[in-house]
Request: fold
Amino acid sequence: MSSLARFCYRRRWLVLLLWIVGAAAVIFVGFGFAAPADNDFTGGKADSALAADVAEEHFPDQGDSVTLVARADRGVTDPAVRARVDTVLALVKGAPHIGSVTSPYTAAQQVSRDGRTAFAQIFMDTTADKVPVADTKKLISDVRGSSGDGVRFALDGGAVQTAETPGGGSTEGIGLLAAVIILLVTFGSLPAMGLPIVTALFGIGTGLALTDLLGYLFPAPSFSPIVAGLIGLGVGVDYALFIVTRYREGLEDGLDPEEATVTSLVTSGRAVLFAGTTVVIAMLGLLVMRQSLLTATAIAASVAVMMTVITAITLLPALLGFTGRGINRFRLPLLGRTRTASPLATRWAGVIQRRPVVSLVAASAVLLILAVPALSMRLSFTDSSNLPSGTSGHTAHRLLAEGFGPGYDAPLFIIAESGSGLQPVADAVRATPGIASVTPVFTSPDGQASQFIAYPRTAQQDAATPRLVTELRDTVIPRATALRVHVGGPNAGTADFAHEVGVRLPWLIAIVIGLSLLILLVLVRSVTIAIKAALMTLLSIGAAYGVLTAIVQWGWGGELLGFTTAMPITTWVPLFMFPILFGLSTDYEVFLIARIREEYDKGAGTRDAVTAGLARTARVITAAAAIMVMVFLTVLLGADPAVKQFGLGLAVAVLIDATVVRMVLVPALMELLGVWNWWLPRPLARLLPAPAH
Reply:
């Protein structure tokens, strides 16, 4: 790290030029030739995935489905209304990527009992993520424009939801603005504020461009760039913030700019390298889930984090060479301090150390109470009922639920690789409690497969729906036929994905914790601290899960945060939160404990080392956490409810970790453990690399 720092500092013009040229090339190619998104979570050997494979092979014109809903006060069978419905159907048939349309007037179950609501099942010729958003928006606008005179039309389906809930947008810019303000308050200097921002932008820009290119090798879902961008922006600014803070501290201690740069990289830069590696390893733990889209998103986020680490330890030292002692120039009145030690943090450490048992019990009780709601967490995917009021998808869902029941918005597609013999299955499914209606059986164009659609009485997010899917697969269908029959569709896909998560999640937890422990062990050279860090992180993650469940699923203040209704937690959200939060939590542990270890290695006792470490890092950890929280909360301004859950969960976890855990639990527990904090068996000490000085 010392050699790298000196090279980047002394060859700063060369380093800057290479970064500018390289970043421009990567960004031009990556964003200009980005791979298309893939939102199909039914991959693998799940039954819903097999159903999709059969449909793709034997029903080539049957891609993802879209539903057209018509509601007429005087009845949909009225001749004038029927003529308008037929006109809209013709309009839909002529739209791009439409494969086939089933008119509501050819199937009795597509007209409600009161005769005022009807729906048409529309199959696209491709998957929803491959349909241009502009085409879908035009179709939504045309269908809506056909409403009037007591007749309402609305569209729903995967393509519609994608068009009406775009990700990203202005939220990243707002997050960046929040980071600028927090850095200005922290440093009070324009150059000191600008360096972390510039460094983070280089890292995020190149990272996101590379993830777009990696999409050709690892097709990723549409939310993947948002996840990578959130994590990249948060850690990118934070990593540079830690290094700049240590650089300013070196200047304050009398070092010249070059030596201050070297010191900042050998200490904080080394911690950044360990912290970033931990985040990457934690994210790559998702590979054990063996789900292609999760793997792709994990790789995308890991690349974004890796690029922010590389910029922090190469580009930032070069930029520090340009600023030199001028890093504290252009100071803003009343903002920031040059000194990094915090007298308030010193006094706070003394309070905790005088009452360690009370502090430990109180903080643990708070975290455990916050975690209680997580025991009732229920997983599902978002559907149209969670879309903002007034969108076409939300309107269609409400009209269908009023006319037919909530299950008509998420049908079950039951398919067999046989051109005959599926009728007994349809009869058995129709007689199953929980099924509202069943369509006639229809055969594929090649005569080698057949299928029908079953509409449940309960919605996709209802706990009874996955139980119904399980009953159909395990009991109803095997009793009705010896054919190999698959159950697919959004409801079945949700149930399959949730099952896979439950089976493989313990492996994810074990691998992430195990590898993170090894990283911490190498950095802090203490078995006790490594284990303590893992336990503290699990507590903060549990508390974050609990708060997320209370707000989103229980509805406690959800409307104030932009959640239109109470809803289950989106299945992928806690799955991604765990490795990301474990990595980010370890970041703060690394920066705090590494500083405490520095003081301890200089000869300070444990109590004094904890006090000095907390005093030196409290302000910067608070600023770093504030940046993360603000960046994560900006997604609440977006439309996608799943991404909003993700951002809220991350923000809550970081807030809890940087306050209750780092400022109370860690110093209290270290005070109680005393010399046992640094326990490291001699055989293990010989295997680990020597500590940095």
In short: The chain has a mean pLDDT of 86. The chain has 22 helices and eleven strands. The radius of gyration is 28 Å.
